[in-house]
């Protein structure tokens, strides 16, 4: 952007210099032709009813092909004198005036070009010559424009060269200054990348005054986040430690009473295993977030069937018909994350349905979609965004904390997935979960 601005500014400067020099060339040409005309006026001598010039002040008037011409004509009498260059010119320079004759005492200067003639500058000055019966005489001086145009062209070439050199030097200086000035920023960026890779614990404080405040704030923020993370990890450790003992007691009780176990005991054992897995998984997630998608694919419908069986027993007093649209599709998601997401969606469907829940898995571009639908009251369009936020609940009659769908959104986002709410043809809500295939 700076280079573009520089080019525009230098272009304007070049135009101004060119116009200024062109005006100077025109003024110089006018001064030269006026001097020739004044020299002719001073050298003119009356001889009878004619003028003669004892000597020509300008030698070029006597040199063929010099490009300088002069003649004098009288009003009503025609040309009364021609310079030698006019006499030997290939074209009839004095055949007719190139412009209208100026009034007595006035002069004219400007470029002219007659058909078939080269471009020339002309200077004309009209006087009243008293010794010749007050005859109006006009002194004409013409000069080819080629020398002046060559001079202007050479100047333009010099301007282009020197402005180009100045631009190159300026850009080089600017690049060096920017590189030197941005060196601390590059150093900070490198250290931030070191933080991301785990090679550094802060970004240091060796920065100029302009960046020292930012660096200090970043270091404080990093330290604060590290402390929060440590506290979170310790809290998760405490949670795991607190839950492991009662879980172990329940597991041992189920194992010792295995010979008298019924279906409920099997379900209890299965849920204890799931609770242990969830505790371990949440603890590992608190420590670090995986950088890539899992390599092992997990069957969506297989996981969903296990959750449905458990939820059906939890809602055994509610007559719900569950429809599973079987599919062999799988997703690249950690199985415990998939159970967390599907568990929340299916449990919500059972909680708000009247009598029917449908679960289907569909193949879509770049992934898989899981549809969980019910025939309950549904979710109004104006509330669909709000219910996805943590702590927001539309239904205050049923127990809960309003974080289930928010957890699904957060876990899905970690896998570049998404959760959307729509209306189902069953009459209730359709929760559409998109995951990488």
Give an overview of the whole structure.
The chain has 437 residues and is an alpha+beta fold. Helices cover 49% and strands 19% of the residues. It is built from nine helices and 14 strands. Strand 1 and strand 2 (50-53) form a beta hairpin. Helix 1 (2-43) packs antiparallel against helix 3, helix 7 packs across helix 8 and helix 8 packs antiparallel against helix 9 (404-414). The longest helix is centred in the middle third of the chain and has 48 residues, at 209-256. The two termini are 43 Å apart.
Mean pLDDT: 80
Counting H and I runs of at least 4 residues, what is the number of helices? 9
Strand order of the largest sheet: 4-3-7-6-5
Distance between the termini: 43 Å
Unreliable sequence segments: 287-292
- Protein structure class: alpha+beta
**SSE arrangement, N to C:** HEEEEHEEEHHHHEHEEHEEHEE
Taking the sheet with the most strands, its summary is: 5 strands, antiparallel
Using the CA coordinates, give the radius of gyration. Answer: 49 Å
From the spread of the alpha carbons, the general shape counts as rod-shaped
Strand content: 15-25%
- Helical fraction equals 40-55%
Give the tally of β-strands: 14
Overview features:
437 residues, alpha+beta, 5-stranded antiparallel beta sheet, 5-stranded mixed beta sheet, 9 helices, 14 strands, rod-shaped
Question: What's the layout of helices and strands?
Answer:
Blueprint: H1 2-43, E1 44-47, E2 50-53, E3 68-74, E4 78-82, H2 84-87, E5 107-112, E6 120-129, E7 135-144, H3 146-181, H4 183-197, H5 209-256, H6 263-287, E8 298-299, H7 300-314, E9 321-325, E10 330-331, H8 335-352, E11 356-364, E12 367-374, H9 404-414, E13 418-423, E14 429-435
Helix pairs in contact: 1-3, 5-6, 7-8, 8-9
